[in-house]
Amino acid sequence: MNPNTILLVEDNPDDELLTLRAFERGGIANPIVVVRDGIEALDYLFARGAFAGRTAGAPLLVLLDLKLPRLGGLEVLRAVRADPVCGTVLVLVLTSSRDDSDIARAYELGANGYVQKPVEFDDFVRVTRAIGTYWLMTNVPPQVGP
Hints:
Order of helices and strands: EHEHEHEHEH
CATH superfamily: Response regulator
Helix content: 25-40%
Distance between the termini: 14 Å
CATH topology: Rossmann fold
């Protein structure tokens, strides 16, 4: 696995496309793996299920939606933080929710950041550039895994 990979956990195909286009327009060249629900996210992170054969290693950054089928984003975050290998992976909540309880709970569970998805494409590009500048180029992440 490329250690610069971004894991995008997004169930809405329109938001997925918007995010991928915004990252491209924002000049973010990191490989992006997309999963569409919470179970699939954990399978990818823990190299199990459909991802059992993938090369082990955590992504550089997880962009996590909250409202997901099968297992919600907060439950994914809880499971990631409880894992000794993936527990320090950078998790940025990227969601449409502006609910104060969602924000508080995400930080309580160990989110590194919380970003509300902009509605306008140009604003989304601006946000992805900011994500890229800080989380991918400026921030020094912890070493994840063995």
